[in-house]
Known about the structure:
The chain is 31% helix and 21% strand. The protein is an alpha+beta fold.
Amino acid sequence: MNIIQEIERExxxxxxxxxxxxxxxxxxxxxxxxxxxxxxxxxxxxxxKKAAAARTPTERLQAYEGVVISRSxxxxxxxxxxxxxxxxxxxxxxxxxxxxxxxxxxxxxRGKVRRAKLYYLRGRRGRAARIVERTDVRARRLxxxxxxxxxxxxxxxxxxxxxxxxxxxxxxxxxxxxYKVEQIANLSDDDIANIDEALSLDGRIEKQDWxxxxxxxxxxxxxxxxxxDA
Length: 230
């Protein structure tokens, strides 16, 4: 592996640590949550430069839902094209799969197609542009993929106490309803496999011994609750 490939691999791993990339292809309907950074427009007549400088940019998420008509490239440079109909006109956007401006990719519906490129949809409208939904065993397996834990009671705890979990990864774990140290301490082999696959962690849970760390934290918290003998 040369230096460029190694750098690309590191960048891909950094993105996968913050969000997962589901399995999807041409014909599937996906919802892409895009990060949009907005800044307040300043009035050119406003002479209060300090007030204008104090305005900080805000970030919001914008959903873009449509049919994937192609995937191209590979590795860090892989992209996919999503087409949707907006006010009667076809609109297409090309997204890099590993773009830092994508917060989440959700597969809404899986389509049954025979081609790798669905550019023919550009010339079709209405029912002619519809794609039959996949109902085979593979589609059912993908649709039945693990979604997360049952939501526990109580307030979220600081999972960044566990080495290997940063704020971004803690947020992704929270999306799976995993935000208690006790949950990490009691993970089964199946739970570890499900989390690893859902978040594309590449075995980090076992490599960094999250369960052992969480169990030690639980022991420390329990010892701190026991009053010392007089």
